[in-house]
Amino acid sequence: MCGEGEPLGGDILKSLYGWLVITVASILSINSVITGVSLISAVKTLQAGKGEGDVKGTVVDYEDHPLEGAYVWIEKGGVHTWSGKEGNFTLKNVGTGIYTINFWKLGFERVSIPISVFPESMVGKWEGLNELGEIALRREFDVNETMISTANLTIMVNYSWDLRDLSYTLSTPAGTAVGGGALENNLTLAGLTPGTYLLGLSGDNVTRTYTFYLPPEGKVLRLDFEGESGRKDLRSLSTLSIIASGERTPEWIAINLTDICTGWSFEGVFNITDSLTITVMEGLYNLTVGSPYSGSTLYTNISTPHTLGINLTFSPVEERSASMSVAVAIAIFYILIGVFGAVGAVLVYMRKRFRTALLSLLLLMFSPTPSVFICSLGVLLGLASIFMLYRIRGEFEVGDVSGSSSDVV
Q1: Are 297 and 144 in contact (CB under 8 A)?
Q2: For residue 189, is it within any domain?
Q3: Quick check: 142 and 111 in contact, CB under 8 A?
Q4: Per-residue pLDDT tens for 219-261?
Q5: SS3 helix, strand, coil % of the chain, rounded to 5?
Q6: What backbone torsions phi and psi does residue 11 show, to the nearest 5 degrees?
Q7: How many CB atoms lie within 10 A of CB 159?
Q8: What domain range includes position 262?
Q9: The pTM is what?
Q10: Are the beta carbons of 200 and 209 closer than 8 angstroms?
Q11: What total number of domains does the chain contain?
């Protein structure tokens, strides 16, 4: 028989709901307390400086492109590495503790961030330990621009046979035509931009191509036009010298050298004490040079041979460290949430205030592993549904038997 008031199974639903609240609250409370205690243990481990860990991450630019060859180092202990092709890096066997980790690449700003390094034994227990994710570097460098004027080119051709219809073409390595036409024994072209050029000579079905460099001071080309086609490079090897001044650590610089005309480029790291000399093909270059402590400077329109003086004054990294008190405060926060969440849920259920009990559960969602809440809730809801259906079925069976007896009487 069903009485007036609450529908059939109402008390059961309330009981199941309260049982569900207390059970889930207990699981989350234990989890939160364990998290807080583990965090305090981790802080003690950091303070003791025991063990080693590997720090991993990825260096990218502000457009989220991976940066290869970025220098990654920790000032204390001299641990350092370089980022790989995909921007990934791993600082291996870093002593447990709190450090400042630094990132730098030629042409980009230096970035320094604090990091707590945990022993490898704890990495598997806590997701994300020793993982820095993506570190973005902003492109920035000083520009030292060299203004360059035009130059004159004189072409003088010698030939030993009766050459008819001699002509020339002048172009850049990229294929941009600069001049051309008939050519006698000599020709002077004025107002050319210094750089590398291709000169083509044609006559009597013979074609010859010359590659040469026109310096800012101008050039006179004396050519022997032989009776065979082919290519000839008139450029010679030259030097680029760098004289360093200022106190610096480490004793190396990073260099990017780009031929303005041909597009050839080279990037590398060189040890340097007082001076450094690089052998290159004569040409007009853009040079970016710098170090992690002095930043990067772009020097434009450098004509080789050239001697460049740079200042590599040491600028120490500002040491920053994460606060231990913050970690302890978070640990205490987890413990208090666990304790008050569980006590609150039980007390509220005892007073039959189910909405407030739900708020107690929501408070426990601050647990560092919310997946525990979701899994626990799913399992308990399934068990509660089976239990509820079983109890309601039993009440209906009792009601049916009572009804049948009254009809007989």
Answers
A1: yes
A2: yes
A3: no
A4: 999 988 776 778 999 999 999 999 988 776 667 889 999 999 9
A5: 30, 40, 30
A6: -65, -35
A7: 17
A8: 237-311
A9: 0.65
A10: yes
A11: 4
